[in-house]
Specification:
GO terms for molecular function: isomerase activity. This is Hydroxypyruvate isomerase. The structure is a single chain. The chain contains 9 helices and 9 strands. It has helices spanning about 60-70, 85-90, 115-130, 150-170, 190-200, 215-220, 225-230, 255-265, 285-295, and strands spanning about 25, 30, 50, 75, 135-140, 170-175, 205-210, 235-240, 270-275. The protein has a 7-stranded parallel beta sheet with strand order 4-3-9-8-7-6-5. It has a two-stranded antiparallel sheet with strand order 1-2. Helix 3 runs parallel beside helix 4 (about 150-170) and helix 4 (about 150-170) packs across helix 5 (about 190-200). The protein is globular, with a radius of gyration of 18 Å. The relative contact order is 0.14.
């Protein structure tokens, strides 16, 4: 994470992909086949799907929106106010907004960042609501030798003043669960139970968790039982193959159709966002395959 939001880096792109035929070559991303197969049958739509912008950084936002719309994807994750007009142009949602965080390491578990975070979130919450969106991402930050108890207490102290504002605007602050084993060393909110305990202490429906299936498979596994147990605290899901954070194919260890069925069984009505980094030259084909796999 070289910048505040490196992994949500700005997209670079060319022209939009049409629904059935593409003759566009993506610089640095391989070439999309000149003739795409006919559009698949309409999605069942039991799972509302989104896609994380940063994973498709070789496409312009316009190009990603056009391709997402054609695949039946309903939203683009992890974009901020400057990009919302483009999403609206394509009739797409912003299911997980960003732009108020400092970065992934300096979060609500450290009092030295509270004043800055509270100012930034207080400014962003009304913008999210005005745009018609609901979820705004946040982070615990790195542990930096804090005990669990210290982390919970600090997060409560930092987040509590924002809860009333979030409630007034019907916005949910959503803390992402990240693995601390491989990708985000020392991140404190690295277990579902830790995040759920924080949610209990805050006692507001306007604080929830982003359960990242990839990250939690790495740090705790037991995905289906865990999301079933803690589903009242979960507002959003992210996907990716384990290991490697690539396609949701048979080269990785997670059974995504079974996981999607388990999510549905909890009564979940939110979004599942594709957040994998494609390895295949035709990145949009990989995205299409993931969307169909998760359409249970």
């Amino acid at each position: 994470m070289a910048t505040i939001w490196n992994r949500r880096a700005a997209l670079k792109g060319l022209l939009t992909t049409t629904a059935a035929v593409s003759t566009v070559g993506l610089a640095g991303a391989g070439t999309i086949a000149e003739k795409r197969p006919a559009m698949p049958a309409a999605l069942k739509g039991n799972i509302r799907q989104s896609v994380c912008r940063w994973c498709f950084a070789d496409l312009s936002l316009e190009q990603l929106c056009a391709a997402a719309k054609e695949m039946g994807i309903r939203g683009i994750d992890l974009v901020g106010p400057q990009e919302w007009p483009t999403l609206k142009k394509y009739g797409l949602d912003s299911p997980m907004c960003n732009g108020a965080e400092i970065n992934l390491t300096d979060g609500f578990n450290d009092p030295q960042f509270h004043a800055r975070l509270q100012k930034q979130y207080a400014a962003m919450i009304p913008q999210v609501a005005k745009a018609g969106y609901r979820n705004l991402i946040c982070f615990s930050g790195s542990r930096r030798d804090k005990t669990d108890e210290q982390g919970w207490a600090n997060c409560v102290a930092g987040l509590k003043p924002l809860m009333k504002l979030a409630e007034q605007h019907n916005v949910v602050l959503v803390m992402e669960l990240l693995n601390s084993k491989i990708d985000h060393k020392d991140y404190q909110c690295d277990r579902t139970a830790w995040g759920a305990e924080l949610a209990k202490r805050l006692g507001s429906e306007h604080f929830k968790l982003l359960y990242d299936i990839y990250h939690m498979q790495i740090d705790e596994g037991d995905v289906i039982r865990t999301l079933t147990e803690f589903h009242p605290y979960i507002a959003h899901y992210h996907t990716a193959g384990v290991p490697g954070r690539h396609e949701l194919n048979d080269a990785q260890e997670l059974n995504y159709p079974a996981i999607m069925r388990a999510i549905l069984a909890t009564g979940f009505k939110g979004y599942v966002a594709q957040e994998f980094i494609p390895k295949q030259p035709d990145k949009l084909a990989s995205l299409r395959q993931a969307v169909q796999l998760c359409d249970v």
